[in-house]
Amino acid sequence: MKDSFSFLKSTDMFSHLTSLKYIPRWMVLIIDIFLCLISYYVAFYFSTKLFSNIDDIRLLNYFQRISIIVILQIILFWLFHTYSGVLRYSSFVDATKLLLAVSINVALLSLLNYFFYVSTSYILFYYSALIIYGIISFLLLFGLRLAVKTGYDYFTQNFGSIIPVMIYGTQSAAIGISKMLKATQEAKYKLVGFIDNNKNASERVIMGVKVYHLTEEIVEKVIVKKAKAIIVSPNKFKELNPNYDLDIFINNGLSILTSPPMSIWKNDMPTIKQIKSIQIEDLLERPSIKISTENIALQLKSKVILITGAAGSIGSEIVRQVIHYHPTLIILLDQAESPMHSLKLELEEQYPQQNFSIILGDVRNIQRMEYVIDMFRPDFIYHAAAYKHVPLMEDNPVESIQANVKGTKIMADLAVKYKVERFVMISTDKAVNPTNVMGASKRIAEIYVQSLFYKLNKDANASTKFITTRFGNVLGSNGSVIPYFKSQIEKGGPVTVTHPEIIRYFMTIPEACMLVLEAGAMGEGGEIFIFDMGNPVKIVDLARKMIRLAGYIPEVDIKIQYTGLRPGEKLYEELLNKKELTIKTHHPKIMIAKVREYDFDEISVQIDELINNSKMCKNFLTVSLMKKIVPEFLSKNSQYERLDV
């Protein structure tokens, strides 16, 4: 028997019941009238059996009696709209309407009986029959609705697509979500309870469902049996560190859903379509930094802005943010044709009022770059163009130098020549104590622009302020680990992690670009700005969490394989060299790194030699000179380790 029931629950033979349309109102009314007829027949039958010796009654014929009751009952059903609701969404309000409609009918019939008795000394109905009618008709009418609602809920939860959910939180936002779930006719989620980590809030009943105290025991023994998903209310999400506070649900196989912030709710509550599954990016995000935009707005308004690498993750977001400060013109420069075309279409559709110039070009081509800068004369340059993938650059160090060092040198030199106000370079945490070619190439680019500024400043010719920003891994950027893991999970695994102890810092793309704009605005030249990125994330924990969010069990449904550190990869990234110091800025999350100063005349000769070596495709000679320029560059898990001996 139990096996048969399990089979029924696993089959889809009843799934069509969850998609049935609503019963028309006229049909509900007919069913209600039919139930009233049955109720009176039963009531009359029992009354005549119980009170057959009463002789002071002058009854109408059966048809006349039924007609009076039904007509009056129909009028009351119409007045209270008892048939207008959807049976499967019946509530306490519907029960109240039915009770009033039936009770008033009994009262009116009793009143009619009384006046008839006063006039004739006879009655039309047994009073007992009216009372029994009222009780039976209400029970049948309400029972119908309760049966339909219970049956529908049972079939949809066991055989259909309705998901039983609990709401984490009991504040106003949680109540708004619960009202939406109760009121909506889009059958997708069913509210079965609330959860709160405040013990005083537990054991209460809100919106007809119980509030459970959040403990590991209650989650394991109660919540997982009643719910399949947890909706985290916006107010509760603000209070949490989602990186670990939601693990108690994720580790027990419960899906996590989110609602938009209350600030963008319409009609005081969200809609079903706004309830969405939480993404790993949501769990890694920290409270966003708050930056005063007044200074940025003053600097960028009515200016000409050039953004290199504009089609990339960082470059395209810088474009979107810069637009809000109303520059005269934004020049988008990149060599990637298809991404540039997609970005062009997006910007033309979303920002038709903004002036753009789309330029296909390579920062390594000095003639092309000079043509662009000479034509547009930008006031600001945000230099995001770079090669960034560590393993690829380890295999192709000469290309890393050409793009990251030569490209930066060309843009920086032209910025000075054409008196660009500010040059903001995007760097990386991998430039600190580099263990790979990519990180070392970005450190050399940092050295060049910083030493160039110091040289110009010393000669009292510093018309361009050179500013550098360093940050870690960016969530959702092209080629980042998260989309890679998602792809592996969709294929059924395995998920590959290089090392069980590897950790990384993460930040969001908007957050990173906000830092770039703030650095460009506050910098006086020569600074390397770094950002307090919070706590690092263990990559294997990230992989496990993504597997659970996808509804699988790590190491059971989807395996995790360790592939070993890639060439040039280290277990952890740093934002500062051990010998470097930091000084505070006006923003608590933004600091300035005090780094070693290089003599421009000396370093520029070495960098020119480095570029020439890369041009001749001499990999080992190129890397050897990189290590000479950046003594702290010690290769790891790489063929270039022999150069460190």
List the helices and strands and how they pair.
Layout: H1 2-10, H2 25-50, H3 62-80, H4 92-120, H5 127-158, E1 163-168, H6 172-183, E2 189-196, E3 205-206, E4 209-213, H7 216-226, E5 229-232, H8 234-239, H9 247-250, E6 255-258, E7 276-277, H10 280-284, H11 294-300, E8 304-308, H12 313-323, E9 329-334, H13 337-350, E10 356-360, H14 366-376, E11 380-383, H15 390-395, H16 397-417, E12 422-426, H17 437-458, E13 465-470, E14 473-474, H18 481-490, E15 495-497, E16 503-504, E17 506-507, H19 509-522, E18 528-531, E19 537-538, H20 539-549, E20 560-562, E21 581-584, E22 590-594, H21 600-615, H22 619-629
Helix pairs in contact: 2-3, 2-5, 3-4, 4-5, 12-19, 14-16, 16-17, 16-21, 17-21, 17-22, 21-22
What do these coordinates show?
The chain has 645 residues and is α/β, with parallel strands linked by helices. It folds into three domains: 2-157, no CATH class; 162-278, Rossmann fold (3-Layer(aba) Sandwich), CATH 3.40.50.720; 294-473 and 508-531 and 578-641, Rossmann fold, CATH 3.40.50.720. The chain contains 22 helices and 22 strands. The strands form five sheets. It has a nine-stranded mixed β-sheet with strand order 10-9-8-11-12-13-18-22-21, sandwiched between helices. Strands 3-4-2-1-5-6-7 form a seven-stranded mixed β-sheet. Strands 14-17 form a two-stranded parallel sheet. The longest helix has 32 residues, at 127-158. It is elongated and about 125 Å long. 38% of the residues are buried. The model is unreliable at 1-21 (pLDDT under 50).
